[in-house]
């Protein structure tokens, strides 16, 4: 079958500022909540967050891949790769070091001026995430992050500066990365609530959902503002799609999977795309004894701030069922039952390309707006040979099979407009804080403790993806290519 992608399809790749930039204290930047997120001991457990920078703790995001000092070389490599789009984020604390200043940091704004200039030079379209988990540390300590409604005005001041400064340079914006992660325990960190430990699913649920409401309001107001400043702006939501199949055909398992899909995946999309809380959310809040603190105008704000497109991350699927004795798998911030029909990565993430087709159809049938896949990829340990080559055929296999399902989804009628796999180059993994869990098309010579030359090395997948983009997705079978010739 010949894969049919639109001629203007946005083939790209993705990173985030807090995981790739480094330069955490350069150019007037203030610390973010990711700058004080230390690496875990074994690279698998969630990391420990502190309230301030401590001299005896290694914070991997403070140097990361050092895109801050190497962005011109990196963007040149992106151009060689053939990228038509680069999904990136802006570091809020590079623009407002404390998050609540009245005037922005001009040096930080100039840095992104230069990034956008380089991207334009190579005809690479930026897709910009406004907040990718890295709120200014000062606001986290001052307000408790998004648990406080006081965050909204600071965020909107930040958005106004971005929309105004980069008008005409950025067309596609995403208000919050993986906003629905506030619905899982890890979300207390993405909310910037550095003072509240993760103890269980329940101990932070009420404050996480209140924080989610604050982000909904901030997002809706940002959408309205962005359209007013530039009517050409396209502003989207971003959901971490946590797909869970029923473990069996038992009706109780099917209902449990449906409820999981509604709460973990569709609730946020329903609010941001449709502009109101769905009825099933009322039942869920009542069962969990949650009373949202809402202002009278909030419903109107949500109605007026509906997004233009839907974007998502998709990495894996799990199963869900009522049986207590199940073999469990964890990955991408969620835990679920093992699917006996799927293989998994070395980090336990179950590989399910066909699941992507199911998800795309499920989302498009519900919302009927354009969709982007802005994260999809395989984290692995990559080996560099003596002659500086990285043979990552496993990554090629993973991505090619997902792209094939994307093509089938387009034939199904899904309006898929872009694909930016994670990641353009190696970066700090979010959960473990390591570099050895690598996703990039470009290898970065640094280890879990920041040792290395930061040299960039093009992997086998670099040349494969280069050909995928060149042929607009018609040639995805990496086994037919001699990548390093």
UniProtKB/TrEMBL annotation:
GO cellular component: a single term: cytosol
Q: What PANTHER family does the annotation carry?
A: 6-PHOSPHO-BETA-GLUCOSIDASE, GLYCOSYL HYDROLASE
Q: Which residues form a coiled coil?
A: none
Q: Which UniProt keywords apply?
A: Glycosidase, Hydrolase
State if Hydrolase is listed as a keyword. Answer: yes
- Record the organism: Niallia circulans
What name does the UniProt record give this protein? Glycoside hydrolase family 1 protein
Q: Which GO terms describe its molecular function?
A: beta-glucosidase activity
GO terms, biological process: carbohydrate catabolic process
Identify its protein family.
Answer: Belongs to the glycosyl hydrolase 1 family.
């Amino acid at each position: 079958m010949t894969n049919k992608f639109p001629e203007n399809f946005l083939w790209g790749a993705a990173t985030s500022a807090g995981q790739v930039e480094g330069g955490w204290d350069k150019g007037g930047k203030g610390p973010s909540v990711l700058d004080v997120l230390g690496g875990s001991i074994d690279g698998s457990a969630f990391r420990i967050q502190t309230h301030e920078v401590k001299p005896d703790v290694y914070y991997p995001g403070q140097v990361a891949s050092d895109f801050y000092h190497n962005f011109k070389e990196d963007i040149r490599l992106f151009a060689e790769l053939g990228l038509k789009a680069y999904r990136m984020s802006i570091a809020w604390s590079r623009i407002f070091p404390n998050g609540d200043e009245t005037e922005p940091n001009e040096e930080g704004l100039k840095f992104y001026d230069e990034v956008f200039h380089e991207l334009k030079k190579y005809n690479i379209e930026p897709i910009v995430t406004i907040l990718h988990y890295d709120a200014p540390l000062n606001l986290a300590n001052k307000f408790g992050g998004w648990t406080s409604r006081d965050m909204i005005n600071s965020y909107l001041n930040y958005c106004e500066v971005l929309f105004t400064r980069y008008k005409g340079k950025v067309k596609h914006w995403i208000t919050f990365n993986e906003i629905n992660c506030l619905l899982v325990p890890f979300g207390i960190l993405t909310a910037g609530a550095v003072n509240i430990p993760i103890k269980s699913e329940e101990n932070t649920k009420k404050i996480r959902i209140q924080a989610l409401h604050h982000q909904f309001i901030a997002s809706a107001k940002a959408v309205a503002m962005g359209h007013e400043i530039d009517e050409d702006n396209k502003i989207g939501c971003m959901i971490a799609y946590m797909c869970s199949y029923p473990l069996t055909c038992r009706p109780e398992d099917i209902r449990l999977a449906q409820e999981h899909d509604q709460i973990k995946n569709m609730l946020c999309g329903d609010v941001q795309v449709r502009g109101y809380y769905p009825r099933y959310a009322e039942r869920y809040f009542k069962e969990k004894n949650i009373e949202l603190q809402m202002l009278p105008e909030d419903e109107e704000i949500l109605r007026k701030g509906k997004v233009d497109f839907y974007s998502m991350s998709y990495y894996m699927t799990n199963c869900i069922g009522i049986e207590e004795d199940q073999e469990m798998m964890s990955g991408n911030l969620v835990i679920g039952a093992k699917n006996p029909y799927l293989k998994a990565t070395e980090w336990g993430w179950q590989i399910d390309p066909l699941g992507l087709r199911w998800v795309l159809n499920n989302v498009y049938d519900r919302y009927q707006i354009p969709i982007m896949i802005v994260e999809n990829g395989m984290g692995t340990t990559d080996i560099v040979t003596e002659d500086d080559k990285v043979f990552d055929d496993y990554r090629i296999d993973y991505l090619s099979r997902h792209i094939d399902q994307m093509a089938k989804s387009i034939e199904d009628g899904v309006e898929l407009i872009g694909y930016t796999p994670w990641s353009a180059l190696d970066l700090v993994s979010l959960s473990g804080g390591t570099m050895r869990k690598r996703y990039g098309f470009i290898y970065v010579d640094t280890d879990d403790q920041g040792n290395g030359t930061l040299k960039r090395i093009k992997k086998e997948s670099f040349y494969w993806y280069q050909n995928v983009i060149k042929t607009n997705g018609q040639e995805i079978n990496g086994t037919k290519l001699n990548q390093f010739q």
